[in-house]
Structures are given as C-alpha cells and as structure tokens.
Amino acid sequence: xxxxxxxxxxxxxxxxxxxxxxxxxxxxxxxxxxxxxxxxxxxxxxxxxxxxxxxxxxxxxxxxxxxxxxxxxxxxxxxxxxxxxxxxxxxxxxxxxxxxxxxxxxxxxxxxxxxxxxxxxxxxxxxxxxxxxxxxxxxxxxxxxxxxxxxxxxxxxxxxxxxxxxxxxxxxxxxxxxxxxxxxxxxxxxxxxxxxxxxxxxxxxxxxxxxxxxxxxxxxxxxxxxxxxxxxxxxxxxxxxxxxxxxxxxxxxxxxxxxxxxxxxxxxxxxxxxxxxxxxxxxx
Length: 284
Description:
The protein is α/β, with parallel strands linked by helices. The chain has ten helices and twelve strands. Helix 1 (11-20) crosses helix 7 (184-197), helix 2 (41-51) runs parallel beside helix 4 (72-93) and helix 6 crosses helix 8.
C-alpha cells in the first residue's frame, strides 16, 4: 500500500509518519510544505502522478487561528482550495482520502459535546476555511475532526505554557473556553487506523475529558514540577492584547461514533499531557 502524507513536517504530520512505520507492506511518501505546496494544483498533480498513492492523509493546513483571521485569503487558499486540489487528485488516482479537520467548525454555543451530525456554524476564518475543505471532500473520504492539538514537533499551547513557566510572575489564562486537549502522539495512530481501514465518514477523535485553557495551563505546570498557583483565570474579554479570531466558548467533541466503530478511545488528556511534558523535558 502506498500512503501519501501531506503536511508531513508539521506536528501531527510527523507523528502520523511515525505511526505508519510499524505497518507491514506500507510505502510512505512524507510530503512537507518544502516539497509540496497544496495550493499549487500542478505540483499536487505531479506528485500524485509520481507516487500513485492508494491512501492520502491530508494534514497540511494553515492552522494559525489568528493568522487566518488577519489573512483570510491565505487561509482559504490553503485550507479550502488546497484541500480541493488534494481531494481532486486523490479522486483521479482512485486513492482513499483522510482529511484532518477541527472543532472550530462549530460555534461553541452547545451545552453538550458536539456530535458529527450537529449543524456547523464556524465563527472564525480558520473554522470557515476548514469547513470549506470538508465540503470539498468526496463522500467516500474520512474526515477526522479533532481539537486543541499539542505535540513534540512545533509551537503549541503546552510549549508556550512551559516557556512562560520559566519566567517569574503571574500567568493569566482564560477560563471561559472549554475543549478537549488532544495530543498528536495519541491522535496519529487513530488517524492511521482509520486510513488503513479506509473508513468513510466523519469522526470526532480527541483525548478523553475536557478542560479550560486555565485548567490545562495549571496542569501543565504541575506536571512540570512548577507552581500551578501562579496561573490565574481570566475571561476572554480581558486578554491583552485581544486575539483577532473569536474562539468557540465550548468545543468539546463527542467521540462515541469513533468508539462505536470499534476503535479504542484515546487516553485521558492528562495522560497525554504527562507524556508530552516528559518528552519535552527530555529534549532540554
């Protein structure tokens, strides 16, 4: 089986490539941004003609939420048009497509975890551009919605907390945004399992449990051996400077469909966080 991974140099893409390595009889082509610009249709078609993939895991995206808000043209060019290029090339190659999407396709007004069948209503350019990418995928594709990603290979919330924790003084994080912290080392094998099975449909896949940004920051410092009492809660409206993009207040995803399909649930988010913090400390 020939598997093409886009966004292979990103924090999720790198873990997806690692999760594919143990699979027998799988030939992996890892295409990072340096080797594949997904918004360049000719480049996408040329790579597909060369690789002739059986499965495509499309994790390439412009994921800077505030950057998307200030540069909507780039957001839509990469996340929508670029996904359309990959989806079209996969269709012509007869390859199964797996598209990684986001909890930000929802508006955050729910009082319970979002199911795959719930109406989408993104409130940011990032969410809108990722939803546009979903709509460009064929019905035979696998769509994996996930949330609040952190991993060992790129800038993310956990790395930011650890960096700020090395300084003196009070740390302030919002306590009115809730989601499911998810870790790429746990998510990647789940994405690969869906890809290997060519399981069509939309699936919500996150680590178990939920937290606010404030709670996640406190737990990160506690696991790292720092003083979590330095972290103080604030409402989103007190962020200084304010963020360009509006975040959903509540974007917890219901993962029942993934588990009902026979896949094991991801570990609790605190377990994933502990492993990531240990890994990051081991690199310093």
